[in-house]
Specification:
There is one protein chain. This protein is α+β, with helices and mostly antiparallel strands. It has 4 domains: 121 residues, Beta-Lactamase (2-Layer Sandwich), CATH 3.30.450.20; 102 residues, Beta-Lactamase; 27 residues; 232 residues, PPM-type phosphatase domain (Phosphatase 2c, domain 1, 4-Layer Sandwich). It contains 17 helices and 26 strands. Strands 15, 16, 17, 18, 21 and 22 form a 6-stranded antiparallel β-sheet that branches. A 5-stranded antiparallel β-sheet has the order 5-4-8-7-6.
């Protein structure tokens, strides 16, 4: 005997072998359980009469059988349903028909409404088989084909068949059918050539586009080259590629240079893929060819053009290097000195200058807008202007030189008309060794002096040379420094500190650059250059150089 009690309408099912009785308890609102006013009435469920033989059949047949009363509550389910769903009969009996056959709330409500109308005779019973899904206790879904009919005493009988495997098979067939249609469409309509080979590489089938690509029929090719991929391919390494596909069971791509028709070369990009059976054994291979002849022509033309451009840039490099001062002159005038100069590209936007005017040595480090070819053009222009100012016009005051350099760049590039922002940042020093004096002026580039293991920074004016400016003329400041024995001076572009790298892929930064110079300042300048080079390369590692690099160091 099984008792099942719900919250509001409490139904007790008394189940025996041949009959069922329902009890309903309807509770009224009350604060005290003892004061419940219980209305007890008994309504016997309809009995399904069957013989021992019928009972045995229902309990052992594979078909799924459900019977519900006029309220839609399940009053019988076959053992086959219990086995399928892995439940006990007590978990099914009394459940709404729709709860078992519908998981979606909207579909469940629709089922409830339809079922009640059918039982009342308001809707005709559709005896057409239909498919619903049910789930077991693990969530596994089954596809069931049901067919409904009326039973005695207004009961509804559903007989179902588990068609899950058939459903899955149909899905597979449907998906394969779609794939075959797509493959057929690709094979017939695409410009790519598709070849199907046996496991030994012999051609079994080719698409109709084979002749369009190769301008030769399959029969003509076989007569000329044979029918095996090893003999017909224009790739010299096809045997190695073929055996790699077989042994590693992976796809490989390669290019082929084919000359089926005299004096006409056809380039193909091919992908060869293995086809394996259920055991993982090779049964076929598929080759897909694409015509890349035009792409190869463009590639060759681009290579030739690139070579021409590269040759021109290398020639420009020789011109740029020829315009830079001779480093022997630097070592003559400033024996303990170095220049670290690393263009990012073939030519550089950074440049250095060295002039002698009277008793003064004028040295500078400049960083022009951009790098590569644009920066190189600006560096040549600025270098020529500095030559004119210092050598031809005998200008030696750093601030005056920068003011006139800015004016010349502004006028030559017509920046008052076209809004050009091209220009440069520069640090410029005038050294008077006889009087032990150094004069400095800077446009966005500082001067560092290390004296007695202390780094002193002389800040520049915050005005670049050229570029956007409200006023046609800019003024710059000259700072005078009385030099002492052992002083180390450094002027530089921003390329060294801006290099990415290190363990976290970050910039070197100005702070690290200063610390590095302080740690090596006691060494001769040529050794300092080696230290700077070594640190930079280790920091950058495999990361590409970020910008042009220029560092000038000297002791007086």
């Amino acid at each position: 005997m099984v008792f099942t009690v719900s919250k509001i309408e409490k139904r007790i099912q008394i189940t025996e072998r041949h009959k069922k009785i329902n009890y309903f308890f309807i509770e009224k609102d009350s604060e005290d359980f003892n004061k419940f006013d219980l209305l007890f009435y008994m309504k016997p469920l309809e009995t399904i009469k069957h013989s021992e033989l019928a009972d045995s059949i229902l309990e052992n047949i594979a078909a799924l059988v459900l019977v519900c009363d006029q309220t839609g509550a399940i009053i019988y389910c076959s053992q086959s349903i219990l086995n399928l769903l892995q439940v006990e009969s007590s978990e099914i009996l009394g459940m709404g028909w729709w709860t078992l056959t519908r998981s979606d709330v909207e579909a469940r409500n629709k089922e409830i409404d339809s079922l009640k109308k059918i039982i009342k005779g308001e809707l005709p019973l559709d005896k057409t088989p239909y498919v619903n899904t049910i789930q077991d206790t693990t969530g596994k879904k089954y596809w069931i084909q049901w067919q409904d009919s009326f039973g005695p005493n207004k009961t509804l009988i559903g007989v179902g068949q588990n068609i899950t495997e058939q459903h899955k098979a149909q899905q597979i067939i449907h998906e394969q059918s779609i794939q075959l249609k797509r493959l057929s469409l690709v094979a017939e309509k695409t410009n790519n050539v598709i070849l199907i080979l046996d496991k030994n590489g012999n051609i079994e089938w080719v698409s109709s586009s084979f002749e369009r690509l190769n301008k030769i029929t399959l029969a003509e090719m076989i007569a000329s080259k044979g029918s095996n991929i090893l003999t017909i391919s224009g790739n010299r390494n096809i045997a190695e590629i073929f055996h790699k596909v077989i042994n590693e069971k992976i796809s490989c791509s390669y290019e082929s240079k084919n000359e089926w028709v005299k004096d006409e070369i056809i380039w193909a990009l091919s992908t060869i893929s293995p086809v394996l059976d259920e055991k993982g054994e090779l049964v076929n291979m598929i080759v897909i060819d694409s015509n890349i002849t035009e792409m190869k022509k463009l590639e060759n033309a681009l290579e030739n053009k690139t070579k021409d451009i590269s040759d021109s840039i290398n020639y420009a490099k020789r011109i740029q290097l020829a315009m830079l001062p001779d480093r022997k002159f630097l070592r003559t005038e400033l024996s303990d000195s170095f220049i670290l100069f690393w263009p990012k590209d073939i030519v550089s936007g950074d440049f250095y200058s060295l002039f002698q005017s009277g008793k003064k040595i004028i040295i500078s480090a400049a960083d022009c807008t951009g790098h590569g070819i644009p920066g190189a053009f600006m560096s040549i222009l600025a270098g020529n202007i500095l030559y004119q100012l210092i050598i031809e016009n005998n200008k030696t005051n750093p601030s005056e030189i920068l003011r006139l350099l800015n004016k010349s760049i502004y006028e030559i590039l017509k920046q008052n008309q076209n809004g050009s922002r091209d220009g440069l940042d520069i640090a410029l020093c005038a050294i008077d060794k006889e009087n032990g004096m150094l004069e400095y002026s800077g446009a966005n580039r500082p001067l560092w002096l290390i004296r007695n293991n202390e780094l002193l920074e002389y800040s520049p004016d915050k005005n670049s040379i050229g570029g956007y400016q409200k006023d046609e003329l800019r003024n710059y400041t000259t700072k005078k420094i009385k030099t002492k024995k052992g002083d180390s001076f450094y002027i530089f572009s921003d390329g060294y500190a801006d290099q990415f790298g290190g363990e976290k892929g970050k910039k070197i930064m100005t702070r690290t650059f200063k610390e590095l110079l302080l740690s090596i300042c006691h060494k001769p300048m040529i050794e300092q250059k080696d230290e700077l080079q070594s640190f930079f390369k280790n920091w950058a590692g495999s990361i590409e150089q970020t910008d042009d690099v220029l560092v000038v160091g000297f002791k007086i």
